[in-house]
Amino acid sequence: MAACSVEALLAKAEQEEAEKLKSISVQKELDLEFDIGNLLACDKNRIDLREFREQKKEDFLRSLARDNTQLLINEIWKQPTERVQEAIVVKLPDPATPLPREKPPPKAKPPTKWEQFAKLKGIQKKKKTNLVWDETAKEWKRRWGYKRAKDDTKEWLIEVPETADPNEDQFAKRVKAKTERVAKNEYNRLKNIARAQKGKVPVMGLATSTQQSKEELSLAVSVAKTSTASAGRFQDRLPKEKAPKNMGKKRKFEPLIGDFSNERHKQLELLKLMDGKKPKLDITKAVNKQMREEDREEAAAKYKKRAGKKGRKGGNMSGKGKGKGGKGGKGKGGKAGGGGGGGGGKRRGKPGKH
Amino acid sequence: MEGITKRSKRFLESRAPKLIEDVKTAMIMKGGNTSQTVTQALKDIVSSNITRPFEDSTSLEFFSKKTDSSLFLFGSHNKKRDHMPNDVCVTVSFVLFAGRLFDFHVLDMIELGIEKYVSLSDVKASKCPEGTKPMLVFAGEAFDTDNEHKRLKSLLLDFFRGPTVSAVRLAGLEHVLHFTALDGKIYMRSYRSLLKKSGCRTPRIELEEIGPSCDLVLRRTHLASDDLYKLAHRQPKALKAKKKKNISHDAFGTKFGRVHMQKQDLSKLRTRKMKGLRKRKGNVVAEEQDGQAPKVAKEAEHTE
Question: Where is this region: Disordered (chain B) (predicted)?
């Protein structure tokens, strides 16, 4: 009798266990792939289309989701847990799925002058405490900054050292030394930055890296082409690239021993000129040049005066000035009166070609 | 460099490339003629990630720079006019462009047509609190075999996974997003999981449908080339886990360490502490030894 009931009890217990386990176990052909760090589960099993169509779609999807979620939860529950302020928390591993970054990883900065030196000498960085004990004030003060422990600037008495001039202002000396130190520090900081960005220094004339005009681009191309060992002689040209205009030679000299007749002709012409009664100096031209020069100077002076007086109306004036100056100084390409923009652009023109 | 304040410096630093990146933010944009449905869809799907919705779809990259977001969702509404002999039919389709950027250039962009959409307000159920990290499940062979689906899976993962955390509250695992690739379509369903008692430690899951659900169709894709994709995955060396030397694990998970010792002079080795054996001022060692020997002999007699 007792044996019967014991058996029955055991059988019942076993059944209950099986049921409980059944409730969280899910049968799948292929195991799912889990990425617990991302709370992700991937089910690669084939989905039976017939089943999907027979049942109501939502129910099918829901039961599929339930099974997959159960498996995911089972996996998550296998992770170690801990208690954090009344809540049980499960520790997640790192995410396993590789995902693309937002931006490329930062480039390593080259070490500064001090860092190089420290590495060379084997100097380690010593971590300093934030607060320092100040004896005079009997409290903890910052090491650096507002209300610091040993504040040089707050001293009201500075002893004049024996070697110093008694009339020298020691306070001013301190302030000056400080500004010098600050300036030196700033200078070194900028030099470090410049060294870090060394690769970016552009060639003269090709400074811009933003929108470049056609001429600038072609100039850049020609510079790049000639910067080879053979000065670009063996560089192939692109299909539509035009041969460069005479870039190098600014003057052409006759060969020393060449065309004898040409040379003779030239020399005779020269003698004729020297002999002739006509003056070499073209008076009218010279006078015109002088007049133009004077006009320009006047206009420049006027503009400066006006700019001083009425800065606001300078826009209007400069427009008029530009017109005047532009006409007068077109060939010259010099500073047009008040028209810095218009004249300045043509500043590079060849002087005195007329 | 003049005029750079601490505030602007902090701002620039937050936008600069970093070793370990922040959570990706998404931009939600509306096209010229979006309908109510699409707007609703956009709002529901990424309610927790919205930066700012834009009305005008001018340069995507410009906006991404402005808001420092690398994910975007762009909704629009296409009207196709098919000119039939008798009448003009207009097919209206709702289209969603989901994509991500790398270094402010488009990395992947996928056009998804919305076939059926059920919004948050349509479903009457208690919702999950906003900001919970959802559990993501992808079902269907396509997500493993088809290239485009694989990229789509990666993109959806990027969108929905939320910030990476080291630990999560067990009771807070409520939200489940389930994507099924079946029959040429992708079914997205959103459930709330209820953890029921199951007799053992692991709970039994019951799902309750909440939130937006949609049936999507994969249309055109603009995926990054393999090279660019690989480049985007390059991790800085500093993040690689450093291997600790002299530590090894065996098959059972036991941790072994190696200790390197210098050569020991075994003659000077002391074993157990025996107070009697301690070297005293005089040479008493011989005496002790003698003392021990008779003791031993006595014991031997005793046992016999």
Answer: 271-304
Structure tokens at A79: 């992770």
Q: Nearest 5 degrees, angle CA A128-CA A134-CA A140?
A: 65
Map out the domains of chain B with their CATH numbers.
6-239 (3.40.50.10480)
> Which sign, positive or negative, has the C-alpha torsion B289, B295, B301, B304?
negative
Name the residue among A23, A88, A100 with its Cβ closest to that of B204: A23
The dihedral of CA A91, A94, A100, A103: what is its sign?
A: positive
Q: Does B16 touch chain A (CB under 8 A)?
A: yes
- Token pair, residue A61, equals 């999807």
Contacts of B69 (CB under 8 A, 6+ apart): B24, B25, B26, B27, B51, B63, B101
pLDDT tens, position by position, A179-214: 999 999 999 998 888 888 875 555 555 666 667 788
**Beta carbons of B136 and A64 less than 8 Å apart:** no
Show the tokens assigned to A35. Answer: 């990425």
Q: Do B16 and B8 touch, CB atoms closer than 8 A?
A: no
Residues 276-305 of A with CB under 8 A from B: none
Residue A205, both tokens: 């004339």
ipTM: 0.72
The DSSP code sequence of A241-260 is PPPPPS-S-S-----SS--H
Contacts B183 to A, Cβ<8 Å: 49, 52
Pairing of strands B135-139, A81-84: unpaired
Task: Tell me which residue in B101, B137, B164 faces A69 most closely, judged by beta carbons.
Answer: B137
Judge: A102–B70 Cβ closer than 8 Å, yes or no. yes
Tell me the nearest-neighbour CA distance from A281 into chain B, angstroms.
55
Q: Among A23, A43, A91, whose Cβ lies nearest the Cβ of B139?
A: A43
